[in-house]
Amino acid sequence: MLIWGILLRGKLIRRKPLADELDPIDARILDILQQDAGLSVAEVADRVGLSASPCWRRIKRLEDSGLIRKRVTLLDAGLLGLDFEVYAIVKLSLPTRDNLQIFEQAVEGWPEVVQCATITGREDYVLRIITTDMHAFDQFLRDKLLTLGIVSNCESHIVTRGVKNVTTLPLGIITPHVS
């Protein structure tokens, strides 16, 4: 659970999660927008029982608070020919602060890497990589990942079939106002 806080004289003063401050209408607005960010303010307002102006103000407040980070359009990877998906588990040869920074900066510049996370355990990172085919993935490994000189191991797991891939957060876990 994300806890907001401030550092005051060396001590972290914790604040309640922003979810605790959501009223039922804000929760429903967030749920509606994460399902379809292309809806007009009037359509969202109609679904939550508000007029357009108050609904717009609430959306603006949710954006300003950081709860809404951005609105995007989801593309069909298969139709675009970007349907070769790999999860790569990466171990650095020496996970020093400098190497971690070098690796993370490199990842930021690689469009094939659509997700990267540090992980616990023997390995250091898990990458989600999207390319056109096995040859493009091999080229990514040879020309980008392995040329860094700080990767000691990369274990690749090719996705054979996606089972679940959603972009919505499970708001029902933190508020009873959405399902």
Describe the SSE topology.
Elements: E1 4-8, E2 11-15, H1 24-35, H2 41-48, H3 52-65, H4 77-80, E3 84-92, H5 97-108, E4 113-118, E5 125-131, H6 134-145, E6 151-158
Antiparallel strand pairs: 1-2, 3-5, 3-6, 4-5
Description:
The protein is of the alpha+beta class. It has helices at 24-35, 41-48, 52-65, 77-80, 97-108, 134-145, and strands at residues 4-8, 11-15, 84-92, 113-118, 125-131, 151-158. The protein folds into two domains: 16-72, Winged helix-like DNA-binding domain superfamily/Winged helix DNA-binding domain (Arc Repressor Mutant, subunit A, Orthogonal Bundle); 77-158, Alpha-Beta Plaits. A hairpin with a 6-residue loop joins strand 4 (113-118) and strand 5. The longest helix is centred in the N-terminal third of the chain and has 14 residues, at 52-65. The chain starts with a strand and ends in a 21-residue tail after the last strand.
